[in-house]
Specification:
- The chain is an all-alpha fold.
- It contains four helices and no strands.
- This is Sodium/bile acid cotransporter 7 isoform X6.
- InterPro entries: Na+/solute_symporter_sf, Put_Na-Bile_cotransptr.
- Belongs to the bile acid:sodium symporter (BASS) (TC 2.A.28) family.
């Protein structure tokens, strides 16, 4: 039972080790032009996923304040710019 508990606790490290072992055994899967298409997967999908996950972790109060601040800054900048012309 302790082994199962340990595996549940260290699931991420076990997954990394398995991914590295799989890449060592069959490297042709991840080469350019291979089935994973890393030139597309890493460039676009991975970056989009990282930004999406970081956006999900934002607190709603922070997002609301930023949404409110953007139009205010734009309007004040626009008004001051047109005053001096």
């Amino acid at each position: 039972m302790r082994l199962l508990e340990r595996m549940r606790k260290e699931w991420f490290m076990i997954g990394i080790v398995l991914a590295i072992a799989g890449a060592k055994l069959e490297p042709s899967i991840g080469v350019n032009g291979g089935p994973l298409k890393p030139e597309i997967t890493v460039s676009y999908i991975a970056v989009a996923t990282i930004f999406f996950n970081s956006g999900l972790s934002l607190k709603t109060e922070l997002a609301d304040s930023r949404l409110h601040a953007s139009p205010c800054v734009f309007c004040s900048d626009f008004n001051q710019g047109s005053r001096w012309k």
